[in-house]
Amino acid sequence: MNVYLVALLRILAALGLMLLNGVVLIYMLRKVLGYLHVRLGPMELGPHGVFQTLADVLKLLTKEDPTPTHVDRALYFLAPGIVFVPSLMAYAAIPFTGTWVIADLELGLLYTFAIMSLLPLGLVAAGWASANKWSLIGGMRSVAQQVSYEVPLLMAALPPVMIAGSLNLTDIARAQSAVWFWLPCLPAFLLFIVAGLVEANQTPFDMSEAESELVAGFATEYASMKFGLLFLSEFSNTFIFSSLLVTLFLGGWQVPFVPVDALGGWAAVVFLIKVYLVIFVLMWIRGTLPRVRIDQLLAMGWKVLLPASIVWVMLTGAAVKLWPMVFGGVQ
Amino acid sequence: MSWFGSGILTGLRITMRNMLRGPITVQYPHEKLEIPERARWAVEMKPDEDGNHKCTGCLACEKACPDFIIKIDVTTAEDRSKHIDRWHYELGACMMCGLCVEACPFDAIRMGHDYELARTDVAELQYDLLTDVAAAQPKRKAAAERPAGAERPAPVAAPEAAAAEAEVEPQKGGEQS
Question: Which residue of A124, A125, A300, B147 shows the fewest CB atoms closer than 10 Å?
């Protein structure tokens, strides 16, 4: 088949997954948060409100899209795209099974992190262009938190990389056939969850939109589908972060005691189930914990998470080097 | 026991318990709770066994109402029988204290159980509970106790009935206070 056609189909598949994931996650978020708060969530449209998201999407599409008078027009219209495109690009290296990956990159992990670190750029652009102080504060906060948490996040991702000896996400997942990396890298696993929550703008750390303080932060002045894109990208980031967590620490598409060949095409389903379980845990955390202050967040990032992740990287490095020497080439 | 981070786990445990607890709310327009028997909503007529109203037009409720929202227009005919032209009740100003119900000597009104009283127009909050009906004859103890053969002609009975009513009323009021 034509190479370009294949590439186009893969991009469309990623786009479809992203949109579908957005629809599923909005419904899931409302239901899970509802039940955590002893409510029911949406109940009116369809059985248990399953069509609520559909109605919301239609509403977003048909809504009036006013542009405030003093916005920086170029940036204002560009910002949702700057946020949306990296979110879409980040799907490229995620391995759904050993063979189902949009682009099997040798530096997959590095690529994903590099792409994800473009996000704060779009957020601060949105905040700046809105000509609104709350939006600007939201944008600045997103830069402050996401840039500072990028470091511990990457540091926490290093131990699995060191054990697997590869930056290719498929290889890292495959290396967990014996033991999933969350067990030998438990501190890194916890650090990754915390840093990932910040990166994905999830609630205990969602200072950049902080509903009760900043209205909706960088998204305040956006309406209609421009807001939809910002929102979609946020849900997509949650998905990306969860799939990274599953790939790095929870064995990717593998199930314990079941040979990979026996799974066949179900491996992708296993992967998605794991991803959505992780997302459920994130929502559980979101429905439980109150928002921390921005200074507490940054202090925790620089003074706790970063040193802890560096220490754990050093320990893992020593262990990876010492293991063959002590146990004679078991690794 | 409180080690670092235990508060987070406690919080997570509590929310998970809430999640597994199931819904405790009622899906209101679709499901409704039975409201308590003594709930006080809008005033309504309390019919007797035959479905007729029991209001005698004595105006006790009108006098008892602290908000002055009950207005009963009564016409007294020459034979002293009463006719209720209009039993007006303004729901919009009612505070549902129930004093009118307590004041009624003939048990003719009650606080209803219909709580879906929102209206789109203020004018719809004006209720006419009775219009243009004959007032009920007060049921006197004396009438029931009197031997069946000893009935006297109506014209003579009417003034006595009014007198008997006047006697009965303070007694009833005394019992209630």
Answer: B147
